[in-house]
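Hi support team,

I've been running sequence recovery on a batch of backbones for a student project. Most finish fine, but this one hangs at about 90% for roughly twenty minutes before it completes. I'm not sure whether the input is malformed or the queue is just slow. I've pasted the structure tokens below so you can try to reproduce it. Let me know if you need the job ID as well.

Thanks,
M.K.
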């Protein structure tokens, strides 16, 4: 029974009662407005991906799940770093999507980015993922600018016992999972461990030659989840997790300032979360939640810069050095540590069958520490109030109105993000939605308050006198275009949606269709380049985008069919200060926000039960016109699952066939063999 909290008494938390996912006659959405709503009444379009679908399709890592979501693009950048975006508007960092795991914010503090490689959740623990397509700041605040992703894990009540699983395959793929748990009258618990490992891509392009690519990862993830039942009206959820590992970075692609060694990233994360659930009646329930998480990154490498080039980088007042005595050799680092302390209170009241209301408040303290990026540490504070009302005055009409009031010290301003919607319901199986929303995103800490510098260590002669000297990036960037240290403002989006959801009951089947038309206007978008040579970011781009998205499924005994398609038309223009940047640089600022935008994208999946306890699946994924590249892949899986009274096991064989062997997104993302093979084995008892 999936939920943030799963008490043994259903009356304890009626907003998260049991449901049958996509097979229920009216699919229900749990997180879009923070109310439990059917798709007929929810104010917007939400994609639901169940954990069973993820496992039946043989999805190998979390980020690949989002290929099933209309309008989302999935890829890799740099050294195999995973990215996903909705409608693009991103260079590579996914700064405009709110991501939560069981109600806990998952994006990074200093860059508002999402580290999917280090996401502390195993595929086996996922009950469902809800993706709200369209601005959702009305419910989740500033970072839910283009949408929100809510990952809901399985209740420990439903996973009692032990489970072992492993998959191995091409390009060094290895994923193992183990869990143990128990359930009883007083509560339930689960302890799980996951290892995920990959060698990354086969090759990269360097000096027009193909060479090996150092871009793998090796991650260990431990999670503890528990529910303590206090009485029939109260329960306590406790969660904790520890993650460590290495994300390999290739010196030719990710190395800086004459890197001699690979700047691999050593990861060390942990989180703690507690949630108290209460109910005064079956119409009034609430929770109080607190969480703390810490993400530590250690990244160090050695450099060698020719002496005649290095002396031009010396800070003012530095002593003179000879230019004919070997290179400048030293060690650099981009170590960082980030933490987030977050509190949230939410209260839900069902006044009558026609009217229900949710409201709450939240407080968050973000702390970031880095000698390189911030010359020390910094803080950001956010406080917010949120609410949403659902009112159905007639059987065929539902209104939703909600908003989020928020204050952040990043800009020192107060923002309000509203959403209103009207749903017209036809025959209790079809609905037409009209949705209007506005959302805001503020600059992240590094965009707004950089103090970027390098302090070389272990400097070799004849430059050892510079040990510990601070080299400011501000002095290295192009002064003609630099905006380093200039204050940025917030970004805004105004979105209009007309969507349709309907279900058709056939003789022995159920067909669902959801179509979304959207028209968005984005202004004051932050774009530009941030590196050691150029720093020009500003609120300098406006975007207009519209399109259509389709999601449909057909289910009958033993067969599930699902298809998605998305079309996006996106136009941008430069709105920065005239003459501040050269014309080509202005064009690049606009182009950067469409770097991960796909004009056409879609997916198809077919899951079929077969005799002899076999199950097969076929899936196809398509994305076109992303940085002049195309992605086409077909996946095939054959599995045998055997269920016995005291144990069950599964054996599976997977093939990923790359139809188009052109490198996806980056010319360095080279996979030599168009067929990738994987085998799986698991047992539960």
């Amino acid at each position: 029974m999936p939920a943030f909290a799963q008490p043994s008494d259903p009356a304890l938390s009626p907003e998260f009662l049991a449901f049958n996912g996509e097979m229920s006659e009216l699919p229900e959405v749990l997180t879009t407005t923070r109310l439990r709503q059917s798709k007929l009444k929810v104010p917007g379009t939400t994609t639901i991906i169940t954990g069973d679908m993820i496992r039946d399709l043989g999805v190998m890592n979390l980020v690949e799940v989002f290929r099933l979501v209309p309008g989302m693009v999935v890829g890799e950048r740099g050294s195999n770093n995973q990215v996903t975006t909705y409608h693009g508007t991103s260079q590579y960092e996914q700064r405009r999507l709110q991501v939560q795991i069981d109600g806990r914010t998952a994006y990074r503090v200093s860059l508002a980015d999402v580290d999917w490689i280090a996401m502390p959740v195993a595929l086996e623990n996922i009950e469902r993922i809800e993706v709200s397509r369209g601005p959702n700041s009305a419910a989740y605040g500033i970072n839910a600018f283009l949408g929100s992703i809510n990952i809901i894990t399985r209740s420990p009540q439903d996973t009692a016992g032990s489970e072992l699983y492993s998959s191995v395959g091409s390009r060094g793929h290895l994923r193992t999972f183990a869990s143990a748990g128990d359930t009883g009258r007083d509560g339930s618990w689960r302890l799980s461990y996951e290892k995920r490992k990959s060698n990354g891509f086969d090759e990269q392009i360097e000096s027009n030659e193909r060479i090996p690519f150092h871009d793998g990862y090796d991650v260990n993830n431990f999670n503890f989840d528990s529910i303590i039942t206090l009485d029939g009206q109260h329960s306590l959820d406790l969660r904790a997790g520890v993650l460590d590992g290495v994300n390999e970075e290739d010196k030719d692609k990710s190395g800086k300032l004459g890197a001699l060694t690979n700047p691999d990233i050593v990861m060390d994360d942990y989180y703690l979360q507690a949630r108290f659930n209460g109910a005064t009646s079956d119409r009034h329930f609430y929770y109080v939640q607190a969480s703390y998480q810490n993400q530590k990154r250690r990244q160090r490498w050695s450099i060698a810069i020719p002496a005649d080039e290095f002396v031009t980088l010396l800070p003012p007042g530095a002593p003179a050095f000879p230019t004919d005595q070997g290179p400048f050799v030293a060690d650099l680092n981009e170590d960082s540590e980030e933490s987030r302390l977050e509190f949230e209170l939410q209260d839900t009241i069902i006044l009558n069958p026609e009217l229900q209301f949710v409201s709450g408040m939240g407080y968050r303290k973000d702390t970031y520490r880095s000698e390189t990026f911030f010359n020390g540490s910094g803080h950001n504070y956010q406080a917010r109030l949120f609410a949403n009302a659902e009112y159905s005055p007639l059987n065929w009409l539902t209104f939703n109105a909600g908003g989020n009031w928020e204050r952040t010290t990043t800009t020192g301003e107060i923002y309000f993000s509203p959403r209103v919607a009207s749903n017209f319901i036809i025959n209790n199986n079809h609905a037409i939605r009209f949705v209007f929303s506005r959302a805001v995103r503020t600059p992240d800490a590094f965009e707004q308050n950089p103090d970027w510098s390098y302090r070389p260590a272990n400097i070799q002669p004849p430059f050892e006198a510079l040990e510990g000297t601070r080299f400011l990036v501000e002095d290295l960037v192009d002064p003609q275009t630099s905006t380093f240290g200039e204050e940025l403002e917030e970004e805004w989006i105004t979105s209009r949606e007309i969507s349709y959801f309907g279900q058709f009951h056939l003789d022995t089947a159920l067909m669902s269709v959801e179509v979304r038309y959207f028209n968005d206007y984005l202004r004051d978008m932050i774009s530009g380049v941030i590196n050691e040579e150029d720093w020009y970011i500003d609120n300098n781009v406006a975007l207009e985008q519209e399109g259509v998205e389709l999601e449909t499924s057909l289910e009958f005994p033993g067969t599930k069919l699902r298809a998605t398609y998305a079309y996006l038309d996106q136009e941008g223009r430069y709105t920065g200060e005239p003459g501040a940047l050269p014309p080509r640089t202005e064009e690049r600022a606009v182009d950067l926000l469409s770097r991960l935008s796909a004009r056409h994208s879609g997916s198809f999946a077919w899951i079929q039960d077969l005799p002899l306890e076999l199950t097969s699946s076929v899936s196809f994924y398509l994305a076109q016109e992303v940085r002049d590249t195309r992605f086409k892949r077909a996946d095939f899986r054959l599995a045998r699952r055997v269920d016995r009274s005291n144990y069950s096991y599964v054996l599976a064989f997977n093939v990923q066939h790359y139809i188009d062997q052109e490198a996806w997104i980056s010319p360095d993302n080279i996979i030599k063999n168009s067929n990738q093979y994987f085998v799986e084995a698991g047992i539960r008892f």
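--
Follow-up from support: It reproduced on our side and the slowdown came from queue contention, not your input. The chain has six helices and 36 strands. No action needed from you.
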